[in-house]
Amino acid sequence: MTENITAQPKHTSLHGEHEKLGASFTDFGGWDMPLKYGSELAEHRAVRETAGLFDLSHMGEVWVSGDDAAAFLNTALVGNFAVTAVGKAKYSLIVNAEGGIVDDLIVYRIAETRYLVVPNAGNAPTVARLLTERAEGFAVEVTDASADTALIAVQGPNSEAIVRAVVATDDERAAVAGLAYYAWTAVTVAGIDVLLARTGYTGEDGFELYIPADRAPELWQLLLTAGESHGLTPCGLASRDSLRLEAGMPLYGNELNVDTTPFEANLGGVVSFKKTENFVGRAALEAAKEAGSRRVLVGLKGLGRRAGRGGYAVFTPLSEVTDEAPREIGVITSGQPSPTLGHPIALAKLDVSFAEPGTTVEVDLRGKREPFEVVALPFYKRGA
């Protein structure tokens, strides 16, 4: 008789803090993460109107150091990191030899010969392994520091004020205020060394704080206290998903996977063919670019009240002229009602001939077809 042992989801160093706040938990990428603390709608609105606090410690952190660091990353990933300035960050992809997306990630240039690669939670071990394998022959060291690193995000219009309230000096407060988008700086909070980045996954201004895992509970409490007067609300994965969907940002496992190329995901601009390195997947992606994509990722706006969900099929509308029967032309990858916009929205992979904004399509909502319109992304843009 063989005993069936189910792997238990991992906990971040902030799990106890979430329990104190009464969070509801869900398994995400093998981690037991807070889904919400109360109302996911209230958490969503807090990020849009004031500020939200997220535990992102399930994300990976992989350091790449050495004289060949830039040339190595230019070979291992699709972007050009030799031209990334120290203090800046770049969104990128790691693909397989066939050009399929293994993960999307952010790469920070920490020093001339040192980078920090941040993959998604469920893919972090795979990315660390692939980087280690692809490092053969390069003068680099690849170190997976995911287990020892925590990541806390503050997102929303009041995020800068909250972060400025907790850093140690006037110079650091000025550095926070002057930090550009997709850039990082080093600050100190209550004796905690923080790598502070200004990126985000919500469509709002926001910051990510990379810290030693054992100091995360202390920093979490400091931020909550500093954020009380700024409307800071702890937020779970449910609101994070609705926020990123409104911002038109892809999620690995939904919009991105190994069967999808960057061009199908509207991420062709992330791929650098100008660099000289023969990066993994280059030949396949050059051929894919030349051939063109059969389907591409688009935004859909619901013209009715019901929302499309991931996996729902998309059809041509019934032709009133030719009586041509509707045919399947795509599939929704993510969809739900938009709390900010007040109507259903979705990301979908559609045949390119139906991808033009203004095109009307129909989505099969469990046996009943409802009209949706192809719209430009993002659905929501800060300040618009």
TrEMBL record:
Record keywords: Aminotransferase, Methyltransferase, Transferase
UniProt binding sites for substrate: E208
GO MF annotations, alphabetized: aminomethyltransferase activity; methyltransferase activity; transaminase activity
Keyword Repeat attached: no
Residues that span the membrane, as ranges: none
Keyword Methyltransferase: yes
Domain GCVT N-terminal: 14-275
Protein name as annotated: Aminomethyltransferase
Organism: Leucobacter komagatae
Lineage, opening ranks: Bacteria, Bacillati, Actinomycetota, Actinomycetes, Micrococcales
